[in-house]
Amino acid sequence: MRIKLTIYSDYVCPWCYVGQGVVERLKTEHGAEVEWRPFYLRPDTPPGGMELPANVKARAVQTHESLRQRANDIGLEMIFPTHIPNTRLAHEATEYARQRGKGFEFHHAVFEKFYGRGQDISRWNVLRAAAEEVGLDAEEMQRLVEAGTYTAAVQLEVNRAHQIGVTGVPTYVLNDRYTIVGAQPYEVFQQALERLASEAE
Predict the structure, then answer these.
(1) How many CA atoms lie within 13 A of 115 on its CB side?
(2) What's the pLDDT tens digit per position in 23-59?
(3) How many CA atoms does the CB half-sphere of 63 hold within 13 Å?
(4) Domain CATH number, residue 87
(5) Residue 175 is part of which domain span?
(6) Which of 30, 51, 77, 106 could form a disulfide with 97 if both were Cys (CB 3.0 to 4.6 A apart)?
(7) Is 172 exposed, middle or buried (0-12, 13-18, 19+ CB in 10 A)?
């Protein structure tokens, strides 16, 4: 059975970051075709980014240890930046990568820059480094993104997310039929796959 996994996420979402373990497993064990799609978790973030509000920081601290453990379990480092970047350029750069067959790899690289190293992914030096790591033309990427080449395409996907009812991330859509919200355990995905398989019979 062909498995298509569409994931709506934002780079400033820690649960999206740790959810990569389930995604990798679905790719490895089921040959899932994975496509990350953009979503703006904090659409009001100014171009220069913003500090997390004190109340949000306080709530977030309560989940840090469990998030870090989940990241470590799948071989990822995790730190918790308190300055939240605007992710528009990162999403548009990801669209450039997607159109060149490197969307999955670039997405992982950008995530690692932010939650693995605490780098500002709204800066071109960081995005260019991610591009070079996965074999993309960083010069071309910056030039096309700065020209606005992918702005409409990214906004269209964000609008589509809202139209299908996405209000938070990560949101996973299996074969355009089953929606799973949040960083759920692998067993939840297994159950959805079993339902899809029984429907296909």
Answers:
(1) 25
(2) 999 999 999 999 999 999 999 999 999 998 888 888 8
(3) 13
(4) 3.40.30.10
(5) 4-200
(6) 106
(7) buried
